[in-house]
Design a protein that fits this description.
300 residues, alpha/beta, Arc Repressor Mutant, subunit A, 6 helices
Amino acid sequence: MAQIPFVHDHDFEYGQVEVLAPGIRRLTARNPSAFTYHGTGTYIIGTGTVAVIDPGPADPAHLDALMRGLEGEHISHILVTHCHLDHSPGARVLQAACDVPTFAFGPHGTVSEHREESAEEGVDIDFDPDVRLAHGQRFTVGNLEVECIHTPGHTSNHMCFALPASGDVFSGDHVMAWSTSVIIPPDGNMADYLNSLQLMLERNDKCYWPTHGPALRAPTAYVEALIAHRYQRMDDILELIALESMGIPKMVAPLYPGLDPRLIGAASRSILASLLFLIDKGKIEASGDTPLDSAYRRLV
């Protein structure tokens, strides 16, 4: 399997708005899990007039700490990378406190997600931004210029936000330093994800600030490793089903040895995303009533 140079060291303090770089601050929510690492990192960009990126879960303590940390400053934008439950519900709490519009690509693309997988990866189906943003669109927050990068894959509405002047990108769940992203069909899509990673490679930004975990300060080689990892995973699937048809439950253990039991459901659906990609490429076929219950056979 292609090796990804994960970064697990993450310095932070709950309840404190921490300065990370000029014009970049972060407040970490106390919602650690197998999906969120130590918790949701709510970013603040700008000084005086600021934007808040990913307000996080609807946690009053987290939002109270955010408002205290921004006392005397003006929030002009609430930006949301996507509407999983660990990213967007706090936007409504924050909006009620400061009467500021929300900005995002749009609402979630489908409501048929498997909400039982985890509280964090469930969908905030009520989220619909006040302002819908387009890929390549730019706007200002005080003296900062912000660029929108539509990066579907993890979800169809995933949006990253870049600061072109400094080369910083707030990468949401699209690229994280500590873990790969979960791709859960039908809204998550492997082809979209790979295309979005390629898009990020072509930008050549300097630093990624994911919503979970530490910064990624050498993103180019890391994103290349993410792409190689996904193609290697699909090669492993093809090898696994070369001699016999196989269902997803039987694939999990050989593809993910030593997997945290909490992640079996997410791994199963990431395998499904790879299988659907391979079906579209004409490399395998499925037989069964539903994708998760089907048996998969290699064609070429």
